[in-house]
Amino acid sequence: IHFILFVNLFSALKKRYLLFKLPIQKYCQYSKNVRPYFNMKKSTILFLFLKFYRLLWLAALPILRKNRRLREGIKERTSSDHFKRADIWIQAASAGECNLAVQIVRTLYFKDCPCFQKTKKILITSTTSQGFEILNQNLSKFNSSQYKNISNPDNISQSIHINQITWFPFDIPDLMENVICKVKPSIVVLLETELWPSLLSAAKKYGVKVVVINGRMSAKSHRNYTLTKWLWNKIEPYAVIAISDTDAQRFKDIFPNSIVDVMPNIKFDSIIPNSEEQNTVYAADISNIISEDE
Predict the structure, then answer these.
(1) Which site from 85, 171, 214, 282 is most exposed, i.e. has the minimal number of CB atoms within 10 Å?
(2) pLDDT tens digits for range 228-249
(3) Are 213 and 289 in contact (CB under 8 A)?
(4) Cβ within 8 Å of residue 288, ≥6 positions away
């Protein structure tokens, strides 16, 4: 609610700042082989928004540190030091999304899905303690040869490796840039509607593909995003895979330059097993999207 109020206020004031040309300071050292292609100087409004957004986060941090749900893992949520290099970053907010993340990893593990040309390291993050627990319970021993949660251990691919399971960092602009610089992912997978301005901005700046899978957007959310369309147009994801034609149309309205497609809702497939044929179709769709950078 506070975020929506803030962006609406910022929308009303943005015309006042169009005359200003502020220099952009690069404060993130990235790999020499990866050059930022997103010219922030052409987006003064976004630059100013992120500055104000950062101030809001800094003001809220003392409160967040005392929050019962967020103080767990607060050190990891506010630092980039512990992050490891990964090729694919999957963000799953709560329990439902974490079950979906587990299903995605499992489907990528089978040989009958499109395989990567080389081993891919995967980072998985979560926002809630329940989601974090689900990830650890299901994937902490995933790289072990004694992993038991697949029906046919002989029919697996060794092309993926769970590199790290940790907390999703707070969406503070400079923190999120540091995380992107540390992880250096080729692709970031967001489940459902995890649209974080600083994450999207940092990914756009350094040429990292962002894909929203199982995307959904209610009519109310669409109205709110429409009010701040000026912001999302500048940091839109590479692709959105929505759960219905209605959701896809809403995403297309907010992100006109993104690839928007439809795929059946797969959240419940991670909880209630469906037919093998159906899971294979979903697995192929997902792995094709994620391995597109090969």
Answers:
(1) 85
(2) 998 998 999 999 999 999 999 9
(3) yes
(4) 114
